[in-house]
Amino acid sequence: MKQAYLTGPRRFDVREAPEPGEIGPHEAAVRLKAVGICGSDLHYFAEGRIGSQVVEYPFTIGHECAGVVERVGRAVTRVAAGDRVAIDPAMPCGQCEWCRKGRENVCPRMRFLGCPGQAEGALKQVLVMPERCLFRLPESLGFDEGAVLEPAAICAYAVAQSRLAPDETVAVLGSGPMGLLTLACASASGRRQAFATDLVPERVEAARRFGADAALNRREVDVVGTILDETGGRGVDVVYECAGEQDTVDQAVQIAAPGGRVSIIGIPAGPRIELAADLVRRKELLIINVRRQNRTVERTIELAAAGAVPVGKLVTHHFPLERVGEAFELVAGYRDGVLKAIVQP
């Protein structure tokens, strides 16, 4: 089979690799049809690391994926050969204190696709996964949608963690794929008014299509002043920071209403972000950090199948595996109006 390896910063090598051999009793081999490029993948591609997670080359990244089950282990009951499936890339241990408490997303022994030191990623033709990570796709969802279900599940989890109420206002700072999906999930959960921001004109326009009542280009307008004016000075109840930048973190704290919540979804390039302690304390803001998703995949599939979260509308570009480097450069450079690029192994 063909497999793409990172061999250095911004360098891929697509080469032949052995097909998976014997699989475990609770595993399935899936022929991948779609692999999405995620913001975390871009950090590994460009910088070779996210915090303490450092790539040792060569290494295969990628974790947003969907495909067709080719064969299953003898004890598998969840799926069968021929099933079209979305894949949850997280493989918690299931035994530790946090797994027993239902917090699998923070399992210290987690193995995650495309994460250095844990598991090789999905930029390959065939992938072996535990059956618990496989979810059948309804007929209304294709492989592109199946790949986008993983980031959508994170956004659904973020909205659930923020305990958004139907009469509350929200702001989404950063209208890339995670911001747009968060916007859609917030709308599906109920909200009163939604603001969205970005630096890229195409993404500002996309935010309008994904349900923002006001979409602002932060190169052109004073985001903090505009949102405070539009809300009569009170700010918004929930801010979802989806850009991973210090500027948007600062804006989040400024536009959050007293007693509000700030959900940190974006992954910063550096090891730290700063919070304006005086504002956070005086407003008594609740700061929520989002770590992947936790038991929201099935709910996200329901929302996507019903059209409430339009995962397919996020996909703008397709590339074969042989052009994976070109795909990553396009996404890293925010070129050609890209929102979500899909690699088709």
**Share in β-strands:** 25-35%
Average residue pLDDT:
97
Global outline: globular
Helix count equals 10
CATH topology of the largest domain: Quinone Oxidoreductase, Chain A, domain 1
Low-pLDDT residue spans = none
Tally of DSSP β-strands: 19
CATH architecture of the largest domain: Alpha-Beta Complex
Largest sheet: 7 strands, mixed
| Pattern of helices and strands | EEEHEEEEEHEEEHEHEHEHEHEHEHEHE
**Overall SS class:** alpha/beta
Output the CATH homologous superfamily of the largest domain.
Medium-chain alcohol dehydrogenases, catalytic domain
CATH C-level category of the largest domain: Alpha Beta
In total, how many domains does the architecture comprise? Answer: 2
Helix content: 25-40%
Description:
The protein starts with a strand and ends with a strand. The protein has 345 residues and is an alpha/beta fold. α3 packs across α4 and α3 (143-161) packs across α9. The model has no long low-confidence stretch (mean pLDDT 97). The strands form 5 sheets. Strands 3, 6, 7, 10, 11, 18 and 19 form a 7-stranded mixed beta sheet that branches. The chain has helices at 39-47, 97-100, 143-161, 177-189, 201-209, 223-230, 246-255, 277-283, 297-305, 324-332; strands spanning 2-8, 11-16, 27-36, 49-50, 53-54, 64-72, 84-87, 90-91, 111-112, 126-130, 134-136, 169-173, 193-198, 214-217, 236-241, 256-264, 286-289, 315-320, 340-344.
